[in-house]
Design goal:
4-stranded antiparallel β-sheet, Porin, 310 residues, 16-stranded antiparallel β-sheet, mainly beta
Length: 310
């Protein structure tokens, strides 16, 4: 594997990076008996890479699609499945075009502090999620990052504090650990790959404004940091240590009193700094809709909670 190929893999890594643990972003869980479905789309473009010591492609353009499901088993526990991001039907670097896909996550999420949680609180919410990263069968041999198509374990901690009826602060930390294993990624010739860790940290202040009829508008400004240490193949380092910082204003409109309560989020996320990562400008679109699978769950319970609604 030559150094330019390695650099191509590091550039294409952005397509499969940024995968977040199940139900990431907020400490809340769906109400009991509610299935929450999320659909997402993203488009990104970057013309150069941050501080890369490796030669290779400097530009990246991609379009991605994904989905996630959460089901409230109890008022404070949910089972989750996430493939967000999932499929990238279009991705292009200076080395050519490729279609990629990421590995899904399956897990559980428990809310320990908050409304209807074991420790009741109207201002504070604390949750944790544990997930299994499933190694997907490799596709057509497209170049992917070293951490793709490796099974692993993920953990995420969520904290939310409502310091004013209209203002909320969300903090989260995510770690995904993958033991050394034989990669099913043909780009690495199915060799023993050690890609031990992917970490994501996020801080998001949020402002909520209620409108007549129960509709709510929200504005968030999440600051995100991502980090991955150097990967090795049979002990040989790839010099692919990566980190990236980004900030992205997000606008959300929530409609909790519809027959099927839903919300739509639009986010613009530019990269601020990094290493071995494209300097991207990314636009994301997320839609969430709730389905009441058990009788007795009222629509207002879906989004009206002490953390997201004044």
């Amino acid at each position: 594997m030559n150094i330019r190929t390695i650099r191509s893999l590091c550039c294409a890594a952005l397509l499969t990076s940024g995968t977040v643990i199940v139900a990431a972003g907020e400490p809340e869980t769906p109400p009991e008996g509610v299935l929450r479905a999320t659909l997402g789309a993203s488009y990104g473009n970057g013309s150069h890479s941050w501080n890369s010591p490796l030669p290779g492609p400097q530009s990246l353009t991609y379009f991605g699609l994904g989905a996630a499901l959460e089901y409230g088993v109890t008022p404070w526990a949910a089972i989750c499945a996430e493939w967000l991001p999932g499929v990238f039907p279009y991705g292009e670097t200076e080395d050519g075009k490729t279609g990629l896909f990421a590995d899904p996550l399956l897990g559980i999420k428990l809310r320990f502090i908050g409304e209807k949680a074991p420790a009741s609180s109207e201002k504070t919410a604390l949750s944790a999620a544990l997930a299994l990263k499933v190694s997907m069968p490799s596709g057509n041999g497209s170049a992917l990052e070293p951490g793709s198509h490796l099974w692993g374990l993920g953990f995420r901690l969520y904290y939310g504090y409502r310091f004013h009826p209209l203002f909320l602060l969300n903090v989260s930390a995510e770690l995904v650990y993958s033991p050394e294993q034989k990669s099913s990624n043909p780009a690495f010739d199915r060799q023993m790959v050690n890609h031990p860790l992917d970490a994501v940290f996020e801080l998001e202040p949020r402002f909520s404004y209620p409108l007549p009829g129960g509709t709510a508008l929200r504005f968030g400004l999440p600051l995100t940091g991502e980090f991955s240490p150097e990967s090795t193949i049979y002990g040989a380092g790839l010099n692919d240590l990566r980190y990236c910082f980004s900030i992205g204003p997000a606008f959300t409109a929530a409609f909790p009193f519809m027959k099927f309560p839903f919300e739509i989020t639009v986010q613009y996320r530019p990269s601020l700094a990094g290493r071995n990562r494209p300097a991207l400008h990314e636009v994301r679109l997320l839609g969430k809709v709730d389905f009441r699978l058990r009788r007795g769950t009222r629509p207002a319970e879906v989004y009206v909670d002490p953390q997201t609604a004044p």
